[in-house]
Specification:
7 strands; NAD(P)-bd_dom_sf; alpha/beta; NADP; single chain; Rossmann fold
Length: 300
């Protein structure tokens, strides 16, 4: 099948372009035309790239997090790059009242919301014996409670009556019991279950709920914190079937598929976008403990 084949259905053509890492342009720009997406943690990293890719395909966005100054700068860059409207709003996903206020402002500005991307998260290396009760609680509150809080507010304010698409950003940490990641792995496992529960309960309202589970993604804060550069220099990524780390654009394309009508009959699913890493990569506890120890010394 070739991209210049006139018999290829437009949506199939669009997906072929996505698979090649190409932004859909011209006649395919309307994949998300005039839709609105609410993206938590959208001011940096994977969330920023998700916002950019959705906007390049016709979507206006709200990017939400606690740091309004950084969000405002990010929104300017996104609008300049894509020509679409990006509204920065201050939100703490642990506090439903702040989410409710932001959603009201979004609806006042755009009059609708079609897509929710739950991307806000926090992670770091830490052995369970050194993990404080408060640190574990904080990760659960941001990752798990934050995902539930934002989903529930947007469902009640809009999706319940109009339908929509929710994409949760997860991880593969809990698939094999990743060392030094009991906090994040537990939170993401809860989110994976939440995806399936909400897909069942909210499906009759026309709401699809899915998950993207990234592996090691270069150029992100998580990559730095979790020792990605060390793994790369040590040749550990050669154990991954695709033999490399992923990139932010690849994650954004996975989200684009799940957020758009291209996946209109997909719900309750998890798209694992990790190059096959979780299938083959072994736990190197000694190396991870050394990385944790190095970070701990830096913090003193």
């Amino acid at each position: 099948m070739h991209l210049d084949d006139k018999n290829v259905h437009p949506q199939v053509h669009a997906l072929l372009l996505i698979s090649r890492g190409v932004f859909i342009k011209d006649q395919f720009l309307d994949l998300l035309k005039d839709q609105v997406a609410f993206i938590t943690g959208g001011g940096s990293g994977i969330g920023f790239r998700i916002a950019e890719v959705l906007m390049r395909h016709g979507c206006d966005t709200v990017i939400a997090s606690r740091n309004l100054e950084k969000l405002t700068e990010a929104a300017k860059k996104l609008t300049s790059a894509t020509g679409r409207h990006c509204l920065p709003l201050q939100v703490d996903v642990r506090q439903p009242d702040t989410i409710s206020t932001a959603v009201d402002e979004m609806l006042k500005e755009f009059g609708r919301v079609d897509i929710l991307i739950n991307n806000a998260a926090g992670n770091f290396l830490c052995p369970a014996t050194a993990l404080s009760f408060n640190a574990f609680k904080t990760v659960m509150e941001i990752d798990t409670m934050g995902t539930f809080n934002t989903s529930k507010v947007i469902y009640e304010k809009w999706f319940k009556d109009h339908g929509g698409s929710i994409v949760n950003i997860s991880a593969t940490l809990g698939y094999k019991g990743q060392a030094l990641q009991v906090h994040a792995g537990s939170a993401k496992a809860a989110n994976d279950a939440m995806t399936r529960h909400l897909a069942v309960e909210w499906g009759p309202s026309g709401v699809r709920v899915n998950t993207v589970a990234p592996g090691p993604i270069s150029g992100t804060e998580g990559y730095r914190r979790l020792g990605g550069s060390h793994a790369e220099s040590a040749g550990i990524f050669r154990t991954i079937p695709l033999q490399r780390a992923g990139n932010k654009t690849e994650m954004a394309h996975a989200v684009l598929f799940l957020a758009s009508r291209a996946s209109s009959y997909v719900t309750g699913a998890t798209v694992v976008a990790d190059g096959g890493a979780w299938l083959t990569s072994a736990n190197d506890v000694e190396r991870l403990l050394e990385l944790w120890s190095q970070e701990k010394r830096k913090d003193k």
